[in-house]
Amino acid sequence: MKSRILMIAALALSAIFLTVSCAPGHGYRDLWVQDTDPVTITVTTTFAGEDEDGRIYRNAVHEWEKESGYKVRDNSTSSDETFKMRVTTAFEAGDEPDVLFFFNGADADEFIKAGKVVSIDEIRKDYPEYASNMNDSLIGKSPADGVRYAIPIRGYWEALYCNMEVLEAAGVEKPGPDTDWNEFLEDCKKIKAAGYIPIAAALGNIPHYWWEYMIFNHQSPESHLVIPSSNVDGIGLQWQAGITDIKTLYERGYFPANTLYATDDETFAMFMDSQAAFLVDGSWKLGSIVQACTVNEADESTLDTERLDNFDVTYFPGNGGRKSTDLIGGFSMGYYITRKAYEDPGKQAAAVSFVEYMTSTKNAVLFAQHTATALKEVPDSDMQQYNSLQLKAMNMMTGVTSFTGAVQDLYNGECRVSTFNEMPSLVTGRKDISKAIQEGLDIYHESE
């Protein structure tokens, strides 16, 4: 009888210990006793493809499940406008995931204003070490309320890719950190005179990058993210000057002859085939260049390294208050924890553990590679694992003086039609630039 009483007491003490140990803030949140089925959290990300990001993500999920004992019901899909709509619809229907990898700009305003995601600061009240490996000053604040919600794993940059074969044939050096806009125009003149296309761009399809940088070249990092109140205020006049500069490039014949109706894929092919010298695009385009230099896309060992060595990436030449080393870039996406999951006692610890694991230094480095990172400390990497273009991009990053987000991410939707979709009419003079800007601003301010 006495031994039976002692055994019951021992079991009771064990239950108390496990309850306390697993409570938030006690540092034992990975301890899990599975008397029933493991806790499963739903996760939605953009890492659904068979590309490297998708492989890294799936491997990380598998490792986390193995280490933590939790499970993931993955609803990841590709990133596009349909993805944004699905996420928005899910929140409206009360069917949001427990963890979400999503944009941290205006696209998240609706569910942030509705209080459906939890801020980093609130989570840190229960889990003080949450995102402690990240530099808070680099974590974007929501434009809806100025609060940080999403933890980034990698950033992006937009810069000037170069076909070195064309530059060498035209007797032009690669633009550097001190190359200004006037020098760039002289380079384009030489490239055209040598029989090449200076700039690969499809103005009738994807004018985004030129729209952004040409406006930025009349501003500074401090003023670029301000939407004009009208086409004739200070910022509005800067927008006019920037789009007028695109018109000037067009009139000088620095874009492909078919730039008004070509697709982005077609002008990219011109760049890859050494018909064009320059290409302005984002850090994500680096993978497309590498892929185009790979004989068998499914086999990385078939990379034509000699061909890849022909490409480089550098700073977009600056003008006025913007230095060439001031790049469009930043951290446009990150991991959110939803209010529904955080207030669920059975899911809170699992959701926090998952985000901590996916944004750990080890995994952030795997995802970031040649792009920007918000990590406080970046560990030394084995440089042999990177290709020549990635190494050139990493070298460029060491000289960056600032990252400024894309103002077009704030100025999205129908308001962009009059200057994005109508770019062919603007550069040919069929439509007035000032009036087109005002049309877009009217739509933007009506929706505020």
Verbal overview:
- The protein is α/β, with parallel strands linked by helices and 448 residues long.
- It has 2 domains: 175 residues, D-Maltodextrin-Binding Protein, domain 2 (3-Layer(aba) Sandwich); 186 residues, Periplasmic binding protein-like II (D-Maltodextrin-Binding Protein, domain 2, 3-Layer(aba) Sandwich), CATH 3.40.190.
- The protein contains 18 helices and 10 strands.
- The strands form 2 sheets. Strands 4, 5, 6, 7, 8 and 10 form a 6-stranded mixed β-sheet that branches. A 4-stranded mixed β-sheet has the order 2-1-3-9.
- α6 packs across α7.
- The protein starts with a helix and ends with a helix.
- 40% of the residues are buried.
- The N terminus is likely disordered.
Provide key terms for this protein.
single chain, 448 residues, alpha/beta, D-Maltodextrin-Binding Protein, domain 2, 2 domains, six-stranded mixed sheet, four-stranded mixed sheet, 18 helices, globular, disordered N terminus
Strand content: 5-15%
Q: What is the annotated CATH architecture of the largest domain?
A: 3-Layer(aba) Sandwich
N-end to C-end Cα span: 75 Å
CATH fold descriptor of the largest domain: D-Maltodextrin-Binding Protein, domain 2
CATH superfamily of the largest domain: Periplasmic binding protein-like II
What is the helix content? 40-55%
Structural class of the secondary structure composition? alpha/beta
Number of domains: 2
Question: Tell me, what's the shape?
Answer: globular
